[in-house]
Each structure stands twice: as C-alpha cells, then as structure tokens.
Amino acid sequence: MVNKTHPIRRICCIGAGYVGGPTMAMIAKQCPDIDVRVVDINEHRIAQWNSDTLPIYEPGLTEIVQQCRGKNLTFTTAVEESIRNADMVFISVNTPTKTFGVGAGRAANLEFVEKCARQIADVSEGHKIVVEKSTLPVRTAEAVKRILSNSNNNATFDVLSNPEFLAEGTAIEDLLDPDRVLIGGESPDAIQALVDVYARWVPRERLLTTNLWSSELSKLTANAFLAQRVSSINAISALCEATEADVDEVAAAIGSDSRIGPKFLKASVGFGGSCFQKDILNLVYLCEYFGLPEVAEYWEQVVKMNDFQKKRFVTRMVRTMFNTVSDKKIAIWGFAFKKDTNDTRESASIYVCRDLLLEKARLCIYDPRVGEQQIRQELEYVFAEADGELSDSKRRLIHDHVTVAVSCEEAAEQAHAVALLTEWDEFAKLDFAKVLDSMKKPAFLFDGRNKLKNLDLAKKGFEYYGIGF
Ligand SMILES: NC(=O)C1=CN([C@@H]2O[C@H](COP(=O)(O)OP(=O)(O)OC[C@H]3O[C@@H](n4cnc5c(N)ncnc54)[C@H](O)[C@@H]3O)[C@@H](O)[C@H]2O)C=CC1
Ligand SMILES: O=C(O)[C@H]1O[C@H](OP(=O)(O)OP(=O)(O)OC[C@H]2O[C@@H](n3ccc(=O)[nH]c3=O)[C@H](O)[C@@H]2O)[C@H](O)[C@@H](O)[C@@H]1O
Asked: Considering the entire predicted model, what is its pTM?
C-alpha cells in the first residue's frame, strides 16, 4: 500500500495520554500536510480531547489542539480503521510497573504494547513503519517485530524506537525545542522517513540516530540519571540539616562546575511522576535478568533514597510538632507531582498524606489543578491491600480525616501546620499575614520545595522549615 521511500502522509498514534496527545498535536501543527489520528480505547478520554476541556493540563497545549483539531488532527476511538489507513503507527500506550506475577513491583507491564502490536499485525496491509514511543525495556523491539511478522494480510513492517523526553508542565516547550530527538532502527529508509517528519522543525544536528537497542536503553538511562541527581541532592539535604550547611548553597556551588551543571539539583520532598520510579525499577529488573545484581543494586538505591526523603519529611513534621500530629489539622498545599500539571501519579504528596493519616492527622488538601475525586482516588489506591481492595478501616480513615479545600487560605484556616508539597507559583504570592492570622499558633510551615524560603516567613511569625537547611 505504501511505497517504502514515500514521505509520510498519515500517522496513527495509539494512546491519547500525556505523551500521545501533546506529541501528536505538535506533529500536526508542524506538518500540516500529514493527517494525524490519535486513537484510544478510553472513550471518555477521547471525548475530552474533542471538548474544550482537554484531559490533561499542559501550558500551550489547548491553543495547538484548537488550531489543528478538525483539520489534520483527529482524536478518535476508531482504532482499527486509523491503523489500517496509516503509513506510520506510533505506540504510545502506558507501560506501568507490573503488579502481579513474575517481576511484580519491578518489571514493566508490556501487556498493552503487545496488544497494540497484535492489533497492528491483524489489521495492516502493505507496508508500515511502527514506532515505539512508549518507554520500553531494551530488546522489546525484538518481541514487537516477532508479533508483527505474523501479520494476517502479509503486511510488512519496519520497527523504530523513538522514545519521548518531554517533561510534564513544559511538554510544549520541550516538543517545540527538544535537546534531541532519538530515533533507533535498522532500516535506513524507515529512519529517514521519521527524521523527515521531525526535521520540519527540529535542527538536523539534534536528530540522533542509533541502533534499536541503544535507543531503547537510552530512555531508561536518561530517566535513571535525572532521578539519580534528585536523589543525590536530597541525600545531601539530610546531611545539610544535620550540619547547618544549606543545600541550595551547596547545589549552586557544585552546579557552577560545568562538568556537573546547574539543572536538576533542586532538593525536594522527593521526586514523583509516572516514570522515574517505574523506569528505574524496570532498569533494576533488567540488570537482574541479565545477571548483573551489583548494577541492579546501585540503581535501586536511587528509589530507596527517594522513599527515605518522603518519610524523613513526615518524621521531621511529627517531631517538630511535639511528637504528635494526631487530631491536628494540617493544610496540604499541592497534590500534583510538580507544578503546571494535573498529573498526580506517584506524587510525593500521596505518600506524605498517607503517612500523616497513619499518624491520625486531619488533612485539608488544596491543589489548583487537581480535583477532589482524583485526590480521594489516589489516597484510596495507596491504602489498598495487595488485592486492590480497600479495607473498611482505611476507607473510614480517609473519609473522616480528609477534606479538600478550594484555596490555600481555606486549607490553612485553623490549621496547626501547612505542608507545601508542590511548587505552584501561586503559593508564593499569598498574603502570609492573613494566613498566619487564621492558623493556630505556633503556626508551623513545612516547605517541601523551598518555595517560600526567600520570604522570611520565620521573621513574619511562622515556624518555618524547608528542605536541607
Ligand atoms: N507522562 C510522561 O511525561 C512521559 C511518559 N513517557 C512514556 O510514554 C508512555 C505513555 O505514557 P503516558 O502518555 O503518560 O500514559 P497515559 O496512561 O497517560 O496514556 C496511555 C493511553 O494509552 C491508552 N491505551 C492503552 N492500551 C491501548 C490500546 N490497546 N489501544 C488504544 N489505546 C490504549 C490508554 O487508554 C491511555 O489513555 C509510557 O511508556 C511512559 O513511560 C515518556 C515520556 C514522558
Ligand atoms: O519519561 C518521563 O516520563 C519524563 O520524566 C521526567 O519528566 P517529568 O517526570 O514529567 O518531570 P521532571 O521535571 O523530570 O520532574 C520529575 C520529579 O522530580 C522532581 N524534581 C525535579 C528536578 C529537581 O531538581 N528536583 C526535583 O525534586 C519534580 O518535582 C518531580 O516530582 C523527565 O524529566 C523527562 O525527560 C521524561 O521524558
């Protein structure tokens, strides 16, 4: 159906999530001659993509979607038809950590990727390029190729790996001006076809081409290195608190060494997000699988340090508040895993809230982009048993001890403490005299992002504690 060296005219992306949606919107914007179809089995999500309120919050995304939707960008549940008509099919489905069976808690669950590959094999005709956009364990393309080789209609395929490096909250900036786009593959024609798509707006020298396995492994490695930097500075933050050093000063001092660099050295209550932990655990699993237990242990420490940092934050709160937070009202400012996103997956807030609830604190949670239902779902999920069931006692604990506020001020009203857990800019713009006035005294403020550090809140009457000083 498609000549191997033809330019790409029709793209189908399976998975309308945080990656599929923005990535395809950017391709549609930059390539008006390419018809881009984003498909998903989740009807609700597709309906949201077709509405005025997109399923994900990402600065700049709505404008691009509105510009292209109805022209060369379509969101649809017509999965098979869209695959059949495409020259190039991106697989951008979720690859969560396995929760059952072999590799549970570590390996990536590739069920959804495999289903996509089977569906592509079933419905395709002629020749197609299949692009792995999801983050996958190294050597996954081998399995994808084997599945595709059993096509119903003798279709032929090239498989490429094109991992995505965007960060949430800055997805549009990252897609518009990426440090690099990585394309791994075996067929020079297929690689060139994808290079030609990105070359419409990304300078050629930033389009890196590698073999399949390097590309797959580079994605896991990039996330592992990034997360390692956060865990490293967080480890140092604990030492700073014990020694009167200031972690932000240490970060600035080491970051000005050009070999270290200043980015990703912000100490925090711990990294969150759907990928860092998942991808490192996946790397750990792979290392164990390939008989490299020392390498596995080395990387696992990054996740352990992150867990320690979240626990340490709660322990410090409890100790500071006279060793008990039972029945104390604590305002939680921020539930998303970072600012400028509505994503709460693996957010440090979830774990801080869980541990405070186990101490029987009363939580009043506010996040500018996360609604009550999502907050309650995350808390129910974190308290669920291994079989996914929530016990009555835990349901009651959440029900009786959690309220959700519509503003920071409301959350802080009559609170014994505030815990700032997401670095939303609006938190630094509050009238802190008013906040102080409304709180119980001493008014404790635990800043898990050092967001308010420069506001001299200690001088203004708060008992102010940050990270790493
Ligand atoms: N969230 C992020 O910032 C980044 C994520 N990634 C990777 O990209 C991949 C996707 O991540 P997200 O977009 O965050 O996931 P997501 O969970 O937001 O979206 C995945 C979508 O795929 C759909 N889906 C699953 N199976 C399907 C099937 N058989 N047919 C049609 N639709 C199907 C789901 O319904 C869901 O809407 C993951 O591998 C992730 O590790 C990579 C870079 C950044
Ligand atoms: O594969 C992925 O999913 C993506 O994961 C991260 O992106 P993301 O998780 O969206 O956001 P980051 O900006 O990396 O932040 C991750 C977490 O680390 C925390 N963080 C980050 C940087 C820092 O200095 N300190 C710190 O605590 C953030 O608050 C957040 O909780 C990577 O930055 C992306 O390149 C990658 O594509």
From this structure: 0.96
